[in-house]
Recover the amino acids of this structure.
DNA sequence: TTTATTTTTGTAATCGTTTCATTTTTATTT
DNA sequence: AAATAAAAATGAAACGATTACAAAAATAAA
């Protein structure tokens, strides 16, 4: 994924019909650039210093706004937190049952032909959520 | 899926090292036989009359017990509720964005070869969660 | 039956997320 | 630049699905 400039991120928001603010641009940049699938709390802690003032409510509201606009994904991982993903392209999420890290896995082909009896269904979004041990935890006990 | 007798369900619990009770057997039978991916609340409402007395806490505790034992699956669907699935074999869950119903979809082959760069990962469980419109909602506006 | 252990129960607590009214910022118009 | 109207940010309070807890009831063994 190429690195986007702040001007390009600004354009993405405006093309989606979203009004700008200092908070919105910072939150969008953080989530779009992160590969760690952060929670709202993580976004909040990462930006509160940089922004001087920031409310957790703003983070939640903004992340929901972006999700509804299709700019990011909200992931329902089973650790009790909502996670946010700035990469909306088709990919799987692997959560290590040992360290809890969430890794991306690339999928090999279009998911529409992975299933039987899905003829009448119109699939618009897929969350492929795998569990197990990541390479690091598989090799050692940490 | 063949219909299981109550004696067979009893055996499944005992083989998993789980002690029996009236509530446990009823909850297990309901979730194992249901294809509707019920929430804890649904299980509770369905069984409270039949059992005379039943606590929602018992339902939650028991469903967690079965999940930890690998007898059922806990699904993290994004409607704010945990859903439970008595079918632990590999299959995808399709949630209709119109009516909210959760349908099962059969998958065509083992999921381990659907992904690239997953060589070092030990995949033990997969939740394939798809969204879109089910055939009923696709054809009409309900 | 007696006993020890486990399970059920109902209430209270938890905590991630949302609601709400107010203040502040934004973008447009004078 | 200043004034204005609309939208966004804020933080306290509410929400609600799930969990923790201690007491009561049921289970299984002797």
């Amino acid at each position: 994924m190429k690195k986007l400039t702040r001007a390009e991120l600004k354009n993405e928001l405006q093309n989606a019909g979203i009004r700008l603010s200092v908070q919105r641009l910072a939150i969008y940049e953080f989530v779009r650039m992160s590969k760690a699938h952060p929670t709202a709390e993580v976004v909040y802690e990462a930006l509160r210093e940089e922004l001087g003032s920031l409310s957790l409510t703003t983070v939640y509201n903004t992340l929901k706004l972006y999700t509804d606009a299709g700019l990011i994904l909200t992931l329902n991982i089973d650790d009790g937190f909502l996670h946010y993903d700035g990469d909306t392209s088709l990919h799987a999420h692997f959560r290590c049952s040992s360290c809890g890290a969430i890794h991306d896995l690339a999928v090999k082909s279009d998911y529409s032909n992975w299933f039987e009896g899905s003829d009448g269904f119109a699939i618009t979004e897929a969350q492929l959520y795998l569990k197990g041990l990541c390479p690091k935890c598989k090799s050692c006990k940490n």
Summary: Chain A is about 35% helix and 25% strand. The mean pLDDT of chain A is 91. The radius of gyration of chain A is 17 Å.
